[in-house]
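so i finally got all the pieces together for this one. its two components total, 222 residues if u count the protein bits. some of the lines might not be protein, just check the labels. i wanna see the whole assembly predicted at once instead of chain by chain like last time, that was a mess tbh
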Amino acid sequence: DTAVSQTPKYLVTQMGNDKSIKCEQNLGHDTMYWYKQDSKKFLKIMFSYNNKELIINETVPNRFSPKSPDKAHLNLHINSLELGDSAVYFCASSQGKSQPQHFGDGTRLSIL
Amino acid sequence: QKEVEQNSGPLSVPEGAIASLNCTYSDRVSQSFFWYRQYSGKSPELIMSIYSNGDKEDGRFTAQLNKASQYVSLLIRDSQPSDSATYLCAVEDGDDKIIFGKGTRLHILP
């Protein structure tokens, strides 16, 4: 059973398009995250939700909008994709804030 | 700007030797510290967490924390080729946010 699952694993699309990435966790965790890992492998937090409430919102363009329909799901919608959005996006979850995190397999986004 | 610093490497260690990975952090109020391992093309996976000063051992891995020096390290004993990966240090910043270092690439030489 996959603990944190993301879909799709790969996303290749053109500049200007809108796309969504979905994330689900079956660990019963209260907190979920979105991270971006760039080509230099730097893992940087974008958003965090605790029990469906946004608790961390880093300096991320407004084109990125997270949505948490329930505490087991955290989706990421990206509008007007740009070349610089190419990266691997990881979803993660933890029992609570500042607790060890479990990561999904990542979504590799490539912008043409 | 709260920071977590790691030497990017690569750190080359002979098989069977001890690999020592180091990390410093800037925020004195940090209370939670983590080491993650990331194989190329894979997601980070938790190896160790440590919350109080001193050593914490789990199998071949030992995490060491010195809050006064703002320093956390990971020792890997009897290094194996399968330990070759990037090791990410992660530190809670006092505002419930985890900040990751840029990682150290470890290469175990057969």
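Chain B has no helices and eleven strands.
Residues 30 and 64 of chain B are 15 Å apart (CA to CA).
anyway lmk what u think
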